[in-house]
Amino acid sequence: MTSNSRSARPPLNRRLAEFGTTIFAEMSALAVRTGSINLGQGFPDTDGPEEVREAAVRALRDGRGNQYPPGPGVPELRTAVAAHQRRRYGLTYDPDTEVLVTAGATEAIAAALLGLLEPGDEVVALEPYYDSYAACIAMAGGRRVPVTLRPGDGSFRLDLDELRDAVTDRTRLLLINTPHNPTGTVLTREELTAIAELAVERDLLVVTDEVYEHLVFDDAEHLPLATFPGMRERTVTIGSAGKSFSFTGWKVGWVTADAPLVAAVRTAKQYLTYVSAGPFQYAIAEALRLPDSYFDSFRADFHRKRDLLGDGLRAAGFEVYQPQGTYFITTDIAPLGEQDAYAFCRALPERCGVVAVPNSVFYDDPEAGRSQVRFTFCKRDDVLDEATSRLRHLAS
To answer: In 3D, which of 135, 127, 137 has the Cα closest to residue 172?
Structure first.
């Protein structure tokens, strides 16, 4: 190989060539540069429970976690995760072999896909999808096969026939996200039953991203796929402290699964971060033992914020798809006379002093979400009030 041929090859691995800077980094930087209200990236602007923060301080002072914690996670947190799954869902996991602590849910997704896929394996994923899904499938050498959640009657729904048709002899894994980011869809018992039956029939593994498990609204109910017949032994369930306790910067996530699946995920994970968040792991162990009243209050507060932002967006002229879960609202900008979500979001800070995220970047076919824009409501009430006041200028 000559020096000329070496220099002609792009520096970036070809598997990642289609991916650039994440939309969240781009839009958050735009918010800082323009001084706009950031309703794009999903991080709360207030911290979680004071007692959990103090637990982290106590762990630091006591010297717990200041050095490398155990590779699978500190025993206290693994035990607390197992107890949480048993108490809330009736799922029993061995803390020593069936629970793995990760650097947030994002690493859990990466480690699961890297550990479970061979090059050429197909992964069926629900789109629009969180942007790391596509990148992690690519890094693992897999091929993503999207099944699109389609809007209608004020929400997004899964077409089960389309899901069945997407599965081929090359399919290795289903990647399921419920409650779903960015659409706010919560899969129903009937939908999950059909997914479980398909996985058993076709002998598929399933990775379920359930980080918004504690944020479901109205009459929706979060039902872990691992609770359905035949699914515990084939399902890797991913959870997150950041979304349940509003400490996103701590990056504490976890995996629960049958021991052989956890071993596969752990094999990949140990070569990513190896370990992380030592003192915070002890704090999250205490957080998971908070009483039900905390989770009830947490959900009710976000339910109210959802309605506050949703009403403001409707008043500004957006079509609003009512989310059943998460802390995001997807809208359509067509009623405003707009069609290009990306161009709309690039211009919105100058027009209104607000930043949002175009859903088009979450689709394999950007046309499918061309006029969809996502806003987050995990902000203080006064921030949401000010943002919707600014957005009302669009209506005029």
So the answer is: 137
Phi/psi of residue 147, nearest 5 degrees:
-120, 120
Phi, psi values for residue 125, rounded to 5°: -130, 145
Distance of alpha carbon 27 from its chain centroid, rounded? 18
The per-type count for the chain, helices as H runs and strands as E runs, is: 14, 15
Encode pLDDT of 137-153 as tens digits.
Answer: 999 999 999 999 999 88
pLDDT digits 0-9 by tens, 304-356: 999 999 999 999 999 999 999 999 999 999 999 999 999 999 999 999 999 99
| Pair 384, 308: CB distance under 8 Å | yes
The Cα 74–Cα 112 span in angstroms is 20
Q: At which residue do the structure tokens 């947490």 appear?
A: 298
CA distance 272 to 111: 8
The pTM for the full model equals 0.94
Which ranges in the chain belong to alpha helices (H)? 3-8, 23-34, 50-61, 75-89, 104-116, 131-139, 160-166, 189-202, 241-245, 259-269, 278-287, 292-315, 341-352, 381-391
Give the residue from 272, 235, 270, 275 showing the smallest Cα distance to 255. 235
| Cα–Cα nearest to 361, from 139, 165, 37, 133 | 133
**Eight-class DSSP state of 268:** H
Gap between the Cα atoms of 188 and 226, Å rounded: 14
Distances (CA, A) of 241 to 33, 44, 281, 395: 30, 13, 9, 38
302 with 272: CB under 8 angstroms?
A: no
Cα 271 versus chain centre, distance: 22
- C-alpha distances out from residue 316 to 36, 285, 396, Å: 17, 42, 8
DSSP assignment string, 331-359 = EE-GGGT---HHHHHHHHHHHHSEE-EEG
Buried-exposed string 115-132: b where 16+ CB fall within 10 A, e elsewhere: bbbeeebbbbbbbbbbbb
Structure token digits, residue 267: 């094999």
